[in-house]
UniProtKB/TrEMBL annotation:
Domain Mandelate racemase/muconate lactonizing enzyme C-terminal positions: 128-259
Phylogenetic lineage: Bacteria, Pseudomonadati, Bacteroidota, Flavobacteriia, Flavobacteriales
InterPro entries, A to Z: D-mannonate_dehydratase-like, DgoD-like, Enolase-like_C_sf, Enolase-like_N, Enolase_C-like, Mandel_Rmase/mucon_lact_enz_CS, Mandelate_racemase_C, Mandelate_racemase_N_dom
NCBIfam families registered for this protein in UniProt: ManoateDhtManD, PRK15072.1
Protein known as: D-galactonate dehydratase family protein
Domain of life: Bacteria
Length: 405
C-alpha cells in the first residue's frame, strides 16, 4: 500500500492545531497530531520541506521502518520540532493500519488491559476557596483523581489558573506575543501546602490529588515541597524540576516519598531512560505527539513497566483530539497505565473540526470500537479557523530574572 500524498493542516479551532493526513493508493487515509504549542509552523515546515518528499511512494504498512528512517535518517535526530513531525506521521500510519485491519489501534497493541481509561481533571481557582468549590464539583462529577492548581497570592497569572477566561481553549489561542508572568518560589512554597491541607481537611483522602509544579523549582526546593506535602498523600507531584538534569531527581528521592511525575517535554525514550532505570520517577508523562508517536510510546511503556513506573500521558489543551484518542488506545492496552490527563471534550468549534466518540462515566473514559484511532478530521471546517500566531507565556522572578514558565 503506497503513500501517495501527505497533507498538513493548521487551524485555530479555539487554539492552533497542526494535523497531518496521509493518503494511500488503496484509498485508506490516516491522520496524526503535529501540534507544538507556540512553534506550530516550525513543525509544518519540517514536515513539508524535509519529511513529506521522502515518504511519497513508501509502503504505509512499514510503520517501524518509516519511524527509524525519519528518526535516524535525519542525522540531526531528536528535538521537539522533529519529534512532533515524526509523531504525527507515526500516528497516521497506525490509523491506516487499524483501518485496513478493521480493528481499533488498542487491539493491534495487544488488546484491552482494562474496561476504560481513568482520567484526572484539572481543578483550579484564583483562591483556595474557589479551588475547593471546584473540587467539590469535580468529585460530584465522579472524578476519582484531580489536579489542583491555585493562583499564588500576590502573583497574578499563575500556571494552571484561568483568571477571567471561560476555558483553556480560549487561553492558548490568543497570545500574539509572549505575555510575561511573575513568579516567586518563596510565595509558592509558603502557599501550596495550605492548599492541600485545606483540600484534605475538607474532602478527606478518598479523592486522589496531584499537582503540577511546571518545572519551577530547584531539586532541593522540590525535595522540601515533596516532604511538606507528604501528610497530604499526593498521587504525584508533576514537573517538580526541569528534566535536563536527571540527577536532580536523586536529591528529591533522597528526601521525600511523594511520588514524582515527569516527561511531558520528553521527545524520546532516551530522555526518560536514566530517570526510569534509577527509579527516580513514578509516572512518565510523555505524549504521543511530543514523543514521536505510538511506536516509541509503546516501547517507553514496556521499558517503564520493568521499573514499576506507570504511564500518565500529557493531555493538555494544546494536544489535539487525535493525540487524545491515540492516548486512549495506549492507555487501554498498557499494563502499567496509571492515569490520563483530561481537560474536557473541548468546544463546539473544536469538535466541528475533530469528530470522535468518547464517553466520560465516573471518572473513566470509554471509547467506541472504531477501526484505527477513531477520529474524523473535517478539512472544510478546519479552513474556517485560520492559524493565528500564539505564544506560550514566559515567566520572570520578581527581580526580572527569566524563569521556567
Ligand atoms: C501542563 C500543560 O497540562 C499540563 O501538565 O504542563 O498544560 C503545558 O503547560 C502545556 O502543554 C504547554 O503547551
Ligand atoms: Mg504539566
Amino acid at each position: 500500500m503506497k503513500i501517495t500524498e501527505i497533507k498538513v493542516f493548521v487551524c485555530c479551532s479555539g487554539r492552533n492545531f497542526v494535523t497531518v493526513k496521509i493518503l494511500t493508493d488503496k484509498g485508506v487515509y490516516g491522520i496524526g497530531d503535529a501540534t507544538l504549542n507556540g512553534r506550530e509552523l516550525a513543525v509544518v515546515s519540517y514536515l513539508e520541506e524535509h519529511v513529506i518528499p521522502c515518504l511519497i511512494g513508501k509502503d504505509a504498512h512499514q510503520i517501524e521502518d518509516i519511524w527509524q528512517y525519519l528518526y535516524k535518517g535525519a542525522y540531526w535526530q531528536n528535538g521537539a520540532v522533529s519529534m512532533a513531525a515524526i509523531g504525527a506521521i507515526d500516528t497516521a500510519l497506525w490509523d491506516i493500519k487499524g483501518k485496513v485491519a478493521g480493528l481499533p489501534v488498542y487491539q493491534l497493541l495487544g488488546g484491552k488491559s482494562r474496561r476504560a481509561v481513568t482520567v484526572y481533571a484539572h481543578v483550579n481557582g484564583e483562591s483556595i476557596e474557589e479551588v475547593l468549590s471546584n473540587l467539590e464539583k469535580a468529585i460530584a462529577d465522579g472524578y476519582k483523581v484531580v489536579r489542583l492548581q491555585c493562583t499564588i497570592p500576590g502573583t497574578e497569572g499563575t500556571y494552571g489558573t484561568l483568571g477571567d477566561k471561560k476555558n483553556y481553549y480560549e487561553l492558548q489561542g490568543n497570545r500574539p506575543l509572549p505575555p510575561e508572568h511573575p513568579w516567586s518560589t518563596t510565595k509558592y512554597l509558603n502557599f501550596i501546602p495550605e492548599l492541600f491541607k485545606r483540600a484534605r481537611d475538607t474532602f478527606g483522602y478518598g479523592i486522589e490529588l496531584c499537582h503540577d509544579v511546571h518545572s519551577r523549582l530547584t531539586p532541593i526546593e522540590a525535595a522540601q515541597l515533596g516532604k511538606t506535602l507528604e501528610p497530604f498523600k499526593l498521587k504525584f507531584l508533576e514537573d517538580a524540576v526541569t528534566y535536563e538534569n536527571p540527577e536532580g531527581y536523586k536529591i528529591i528521592r533522597n528526601h521525600t516519598t511523594t511520588p514524582m511525575a515527569l516527561g511531558e517535554k520528553f521527545n524520546t525514550i532516551w530522555d526518560a531512560k536514566h530517570l526510569i532505570e534509577n527509579q527516580y520517577i513514578d509516572f512518565v508523562r510523555t505524549a504521543v505527539t511530543h514523543g514521536g508517536g505510538i511506536t516509541p510510546l509503546k516501547k517507553l511503556a514496556d521499558f517503564a513497566s520493568l521499573y514499576h513506573v506507570r504511564m500518565a500521558p500529557h493531555g493538555a489543551p494544546d494536544l489535539s483530539p487525535i493525540c487524545f484518542m491515540a492516548h486512549m488506545h495506549l492507555d487501554l492496552w498498557a499494563p502499567n497505565f496509571g492515569v490520563q490527563e483530561f481537560i474536557g471534550f473541548g468546544t463546539p468549534e473544536l469538535n466541528e473540526v475533530f469528530n470522535f466518540q468518547a464517553q466520560l462515566k465516573d471518572g473513566e473514559i470509554y471509547i467506541e470500537d472504531k477501526p484505527g484511532i477513531g477520529v474524523e478530521f473535517n478539512e472544510e471546517a478546519a479552513i474556517k479557523y485560520p492559524y493565528k500566531r500564539s505564544y506560550l507565556p514566559v515567566s520572570r522572578l520578581e527581580d526580572g530574572t527569566l524563569w521556567n514558565w
